[in-house]
Write a structure and sequence with these properties.
The strands form 4 sheets. Strands 1, 2, 3, 4, 5, 6, 17, 18 and 19 form a 9-stranded mixed sheet that branches. A 5-stranded parallel sheet has the order 12-13-14-15-16. It has a 3-stranded parallel sheet with strand order 7-8-9. The two termini are 17 Å apart. The chain is of the alpha/beta class. It has 2 domains: 125 residues, Urease, subunit C, domain 1 (Roll); 284 residues, Metal-dependent hydrolases (TIM Barrel, Alpha-Beta Barrel), CATH 3.20.20. Helix content is 29%, strand content 21%. It has 13 helices and 19 strands.
Length: 447
């Protein structure tokens, strides 16, 4: 029997925080732990967890556990929990400023994104839903072991109407001349401009062809985009229906960027299955979302140190203030109507902000208890990821600790159910990070 963190030799380089991912040839048995299973709002004592072949093979009670042929990881009484999930991440767009993204070549952008992907995993986020950007190659590289990072559910380019949230062309590029080259954003694969059902069908099918696990459309005005006031609705019901039909034909769904009631309601009538943002939610729209069983994937968008930063006095800052004003009411309506609520960060164009991913999650305690927030960031977000159906790149149980689930696990130095701020400092408080049964960080101290 080998002891990975205890009195014997460290089978996984205990105390070394980072390095090459370590994979055991034998099953791993996590012992001496308190278990947060991702579902129930309390810690379970007297459990041990067996990991084999990248999955959790058993959750065992008391002394009912194997003693031979396994490598033991003594958790030292710490909390074992599922890896965190960010349901609104931008793998390719968060690690550089907008100016750098508009001028750098795709190779440099991808290298910067790969470095950020490793940091994302080291913050304890083992899965992310990517909601705009050319993340297909990064996902493949991570899956193939060429680089380190979380599991990625990619949307590819955000599909936008002319003048919509995904239109970052310069004014001199309008009107578009026949046969004109693609805009910079389209060349990068960050956005795809489509007007009318025929173009929406084509752009939707292109993203599905490239490997999108779900589609994203811009349904209303945005903060970062230059031309669209926050109140404008984008796309018509029939255009949304074209995208939704394309997605349904591939066994998946459409989510939309939307803040206002009109944008959300039009999208839902068009067959969209998820609203992202929704900060200006009203009672009528909340009832509609609940009645249709649509997901509400939102963010802790409030003024403060973790807000996406825009120049003082700029149009984007003014739009952001309008959006911030609705956040409290939106979450209260989501709770009142028991909406299927997911969580994400939506960090854009700000490489200095990504380190705050866990702190942004902790901000959700403004509206929910710590245990509700952690359930949302594990099993609830995993439910949303499974909405990809046949296009789910990682079919199987995720965000929970139970037999058959992916072995995406964290060991936390403390009780995050009572002190969620622990996830805001992953370097100090995440003692072990595992994805797919492989250990990527082990800072458990022998003793």
């Amino acid at each position: 029997m080998l002891v990975a963190a205890g009195a014997g030799a460290a089978a996984f380089a205990a105390g070394r925080a980072y390095g090459r991912p370590q994979s055991a040839g034998q099953p791993l048995l996590f012992t001496n732990l308190r278990l947060f299973d991702g579902v129930t709002a309390r810690l379970h004592d007297g459990r041990s967890v067996l990991v084999e072949g990248g999955r959790i093979s058993a959750v065992l009670r008391g002394a009912d556990r194997p003693t031979e042929g396994v490598q033991i990881i003594d958790c030292g009484g710490r909390t074992l929990m599922p890896g965190l999930i960010d349901a609104h991440w931008h793998s390719m767009l968060c690690a550089m400023s907008m100016m750098e993204l508009m001028t750098a070549d795709l190779g440099l952008i991808t290298l910067a994104a790969a470095a950020e992907a490793e940091r994302t995993l080291m913050r304890g986020f083992t899965s992310i839903r990517d909601l705009a950007g050319p993340a297909f190659s990064l996902k493949r590289a991570i899956d193939a072991g060429l680089t380190v990072g979380p599991r990625i559910w990619p949307s590819g380019a955000m599909i936008s109407q002319t003048g919509g949230h995904g239109d970052f062309r310069m004014p001199h590029e309008v009107p578009t001349a026949p046969g004109a080259p693609l805009s910079r954003g389209e060349v990068l694969g960050a956005g795809a401009i489509a007007d009318g059902t025929e173009q929406v069908l084509k752009r939707s099918r292109e993203q599905l062809m490239l490997g999108a696990s779900q589609l994203k459309l811009a349904a209303g005005g945005g903060v970062a985009s230059a031309y669209d006031p926050i109140d404008v609705a984008q796309y018509t019901e029939v255009e949304f229906r074209a995208a939704a039909d394309s997605a349904e034909n591939w066994g998946t769904y459409v989510t939309v960027h939307a803040y206002t009631p009109r944008a959300m309601q039009t999208a839902i009538r068009g067959g969209v299955r998820c609203i992202d943002h929704g900060q200006m939610l009203d009672e009528e729209t909340a009832r509609m979302i609940a009645g249709e069983g649509v997901w509400f994937s939102s963010q802790a968008f409030v003024a403060g140190p973790y807000a996406n930063q825009y120049p003082e006095g700029s149009a984007s800052q003014a739009k952001q203030s309008v959006m911030f004003a609705g956040t409290d009411a939106a979450f209260e309506l989501a709770k009142k109507h028991r909406l299927k609520t997911a969580w994400g960060t939506d960090i854009l164009f700000d490489p200095a902000m990504t380190k705050n991913q866990g702190a942004i999650l902790a901000q959700m305690t403004r509206w929910y208890s710590s245990d509700e927030v952690l359930i949302m960031a594990t099993s609830r977000n995993a439910e949303l990821l499974s909405l990809s159906g046949e296009r789910n790149p990682y079919p199987g149980k995720l965000g929970v600790i139970e037999a058959g689930a992916y072995a995406d696990l964290l060991i936390v130095d403390g009780d995050p159910l009572t002190d969620i701020a622990l996830v805001a400092d992953p370097e100090a408080n995440l003692r072990l990070i595992m994805k797919g049964g492989r250990i990527y960080k082990n800072a458990l101290q022998p003793g």
